[in-house]
Amino acid sequence: MDIKSNKLIVILGPTASGKTDLAIKLAKKFSGEIVSADSRQVYKEMDIGTAKPEKKEIKTVPHYLIDTEKPNQKFNVALYKKIAIKIIKDIQRRRKLPFLVGGTGLYIKAIIDNIKFPNVLPKKSLRKILERKSEKELFKIYKKLDPQGAKIIDRKNKRRLVRAIEVCKVTKKPFWQQRKKGGPIFSPLIIGIKLPKKELKKRVKTRVEKMFKLGLENEVKNLIKKYGWNIPSLQTIGYQEWKEYFTKKPAITKKELKEKIKLHTIQFTKRQMTWFSARGGSAVSGKKNERIRWVKNYRKAEKLIKKFLKKKRGR
């Protein structure tokens, strides 16, 4: 690969769609290195519930932005963007091909569209009030403040809702208007994995079953013992559901818990696909995102990358 190339391969898709396996196989083929775009795999000690790549897989292809932060440390998209861009540029300098891989749409968009985020300091007094509210209550508040942004924000992501409301109230402007695109940093090929709904549901259910067998319960127990329930990183599907199991009386059964995690994950995959399908991942018009090249298998992805790498820079 040309040392001056700024090409970037993006592999995105919903949870359990097979992004990791596909990316590793492609990275091996094209002398690539993987930069994770997963807002939860960045945390240490959260391995099973976030479905991190196995250590033997990480050894075969260099991975970045996995296991870099403690679960109680604050980490956001602005910080992610700064670190990820530096890593990607370093990979390119070493004449390797960077692969940006994950399901966190906002993280991916921050890189490929060079999004500029509002520089608003946290307002602790306001946050305390907002964090006591449910996701449903927060979404209702945000919708009044920013109707356009409310159409595409993840209404189940409490941390993101709190931040969006905070920015609206501090700046007196809609949050979505303040996230502007900068000039492009990289030339990306965006490949999306799209599976039939039935197949994706089946994969989600299989993945959750596997998590329980691998010891998800013990992982959650250790995290709670060390950090408590209130850290933002644990407000994550696969972890947050255990609070009812451990603290409520009468507690839900383990079977009910498992089914709840499966249901929440399936619902999350639908929200991911809605986000990815919007133009640029941030449109409110409902138009499809034409930049994503959807594939169902390795062969199609390989063909797209070969064609992309043959193109001269800037064309």
How would you describe what is shown here?
This protein has 315 residues and is α/β, with parallel strands linked by helices. It has two domains: 1-117 and 181-315, Rossmann fold; 118-178, Histone, subunit A. 48% of the residues lie in helices and 11% in strands. It has 13 helices and eight strands. It has helices at 19-29, 55-60, 77-93, 105-112, 124-131, 135-145, 147-150, 158-171, 197-214, 216-227, 242-247, 254-277, 298-310, and strands at 7-12, 32-36, 63-64, 97-102, 115-116, 180-181, 187-193, 292-295. The strands form two sheets. It has a six-stranded parallel beta sheet with strand order 3-2-4-1-7-8, sandwiched between helices. A two-stranded antiparallel ribbon has the order 5-6. α6 runs parallel beside α8 (158-171).
Which CATH top level class of the largest domain fits?
Alpha Beta
What pattern of helices and strands is seen along the backbone?
A: EHEHEHEHEHHHHEEHHHHEH
In total, how many domains does the architecture comprise? 2
Main sheet makeup: 6 strands, parallel
Backbone shape? globular
Beta fraction: 5-15%
Number of helices: 13
- Helix/strand-derived category reads alpha/beta
Radius of gyration: 20 Å
Architecture of the largest domain, CATH level 2?
3-Layer(aba) Sandwich
Q: Whole-number average pLDDT?
A: 90
Tell me the CATH superfamily of the largest domain. Answer: P-loop containing nucleotide triphosphate hydrolases
Low-confidence residue ranges: 279-287
Helix content bin: 40-55%
Strands of the largest sheet, in order across it?
A: 3-2-4-1-7-8
Cα separation of the termini: 16 Å
